[in-house]
Amino acid sequence: MAFDYDLFVIGGGSGGVRAARVAAATGAKVALAEEYRMGGTCVIRGCVPKKLMVYASGYPDIFDDAREYGWDVSHNGFDWGHFRTRLHSELDRLEEVYRDLLNGSEVEIFDGRATLDDPHTVRINDKTVTAKHILVATGGHPVRPDMPNADLGIVSNDIFLMEKMPKSVLIIGGGYIACEFACILHGLGVEVTQYYRGAQILRGFDDEARGLLADAMTQRGINLHVGTNIVEMAPAGEDHGGPTPTDSDAAMGASAKHAQDIASNPKSDTDKKAKGPIWVKSTNGNEQVFDHVLFATGRAPNTDGIGLTEAGVEIGRRGEIVVDDYSQTSVPSIYAIGDVTNRVQLTPVAIREGMAFVETVFKGNPTKPDHDLIPSAVFTQPELGTIGLTEEEARDQEPIEVYCTSFRPMQQAFAGKSGRVLMKLIVSKESRKVLGCHIVADHAGEMIQLAGIAVKMGATKEDFDRTVAVHPTMAEELVTMKEPMRTA
Ligand code: FAD
To answer: What is the C-alpha separation between 302 and 282, in angstroms, rounded?
Structure first.
């Protein structure tokens, strides 16, 4: 049977764009549909705008430190309107870059929502096309908890569109997105309260690292409450005695082009109800009013209403597309990559999965994406960089030595700051391999990328020790820790 395309990609995010381009480079006839903005979560409402906000939020520390280093510095505060305009023009530019890359690769772009009619047929608006292979790369979306008035809260997508900076925000959640936004908003001058229902933030990360980070966040002035959750929320001033809504009602109104984008996007999470201030009651009995409540309580795969089940694609318990090691679904012509498969929800992983798919299907070289030893970072202040096993995971697996040190870094000690960093290696007693590396420090994201190469190569503790230190740096501690702090 002749098909219109060799490959039809649904979703123009990190994974979909890369797979489409690389497949087209093999000579395949490729089309891609995107229902919102090219670039997907990472570029439009994830990694990129978040990291730019991380940079913006770091300046109060820089100004403070500069004074201690002898600079005569003064400033007049943060201008969100100026920053937001610059932010969105940068996102517009990046979106165009993605479009140009696809056009340059001769990938045909369909601007619209794609759904499946059958295992080889895709419908975009009123048009149907056929493809030999279909790649679903539709990503995920933030979810609010199932409670009355949850739509009064905002989600991560909405942060980048705020008309003005709120005075106070309650963040619900303890994952990396919750913690990153707690630090970002705090750095931008917002009074931040964070509730997490578990015993400690950043579940799944090394206990010692998450403990140090929680202390650092608290010391910076983030009002962090673990073991605490929200039980009730309502517009302030209704019948809870809170203040009547003020001009911060306008705080969620999106601006210009982006307001239109959001309004016309059927998947927008920005709800007209999401206006502050909001009265909140929590499990610790506390009642308080916040300008915004930000739900960072998890994400769900975008699998609804695309015709997946009807086409015979198996969907898992969390709404994810079930795939095999080669990203193939239960329907042989349909593959899926990225967040929609709920494997490891990171941009470089979605990209790797896309490239492995192309190797397998278009280059005759069956390739499994490698999900082992993935370095990652939490862009809090300080950052947390991590690769491999946590101390807790490793000691359940085999006898280990733990090398770690915590100290005040030179730059901050000079500026009179009390913040500490952590450098930690988990070492197998038997093989001597470094099983895990965890760093809490400014720029830990940059450091773990490099340490990650050694760990991925299977470096031993002795390989680390043989490496001459770069002095004076924080990371030199990774190659100078002589005695284990403990064994397990
Ligand atoms: P996406 O990038 O989500 O792309 C999916 C695309 O499909 C979207 O553009 C969507 O509009 C489109 N789509 C959906 N359904 C349809 C349809 N039926 N028809 C047409 N188009 C459709 N990862 C990192 O590695 N580092 C970070 O620092 C980081 N920070 C993040 C911060 C935040 C706030 C968030 C939310 C995520 C962050 N991530 C980060 C995760 C990262 O953004 C995702 O893992 C990555 O974008 C997943 O790529 P994807 O291709 O699977 O999906």
So the answer is: 30
Q: How far is ligand 1, taken at its centre, from the CA of residue 339, in Å?
A: 7
3-state secondary structure of 402: strand
441 lines ligand 1 (CB under 6 A): no
> Which of 73-77, 244-248, 301-305 shows the lowest mean pLDDT across its residues?
244-248
Biggest CA–CA distance in the chain, Å, is: 74
Structure tokens, 354? 């896309």
For residue 367, give Cα distances in angstroms to 137, 306, 347, 355, 357.
18, 27, 19, 9, 7
Helices (H) and strands (E) in the chain, counts: 14, 22
Q: Enter the CATH code of domain 376-483.
A: 3.30.390.30
- Beta carbon of 113 within 6 Å of any ligand 1 atom: yes
Q: How far is the CA of 364 from the centre of ligand 1 (A)?
A: 28
Determine the length of the chain.
488
Q: Is the CB of 350 under 6 A from ligand 1?
A: yes
pLDDT tens for each residue of 37-46? 999 999 999 9
- Superfamily for 144-296? FAD/NAD(P)-binding domain (3.50.50.60)
- Ligand 1 atom nearest residue 17's Cα: 51
Beta bridge partners of 33: 10, 110
* Domain edges within the chain: 5-141+300-361, 144-296, 376-483
- pTM comes to 0.94
**Are domains 5-141+300-361 and 376-483 of this chain identical in fold?**
no
Tokens encoding 33: 């549909």
Q: What is the CATH number of domain 5-141+300-361?
A: 3.50.50.60
Looking at ligand 1, which atom is closest to the CA of residue 16? Answer: 51
Active-site residue list? 471
Q: 349 CA distance to ligand 1 centroid (A)?
A: 11
- Nearest residue (by CA) to ligand 1, atom 38, is 46
Output the CA 130–ligand 1 centroid distance in Å.
25
Q: Give Cα 415 to chain centroid, integer Å.
A: 31
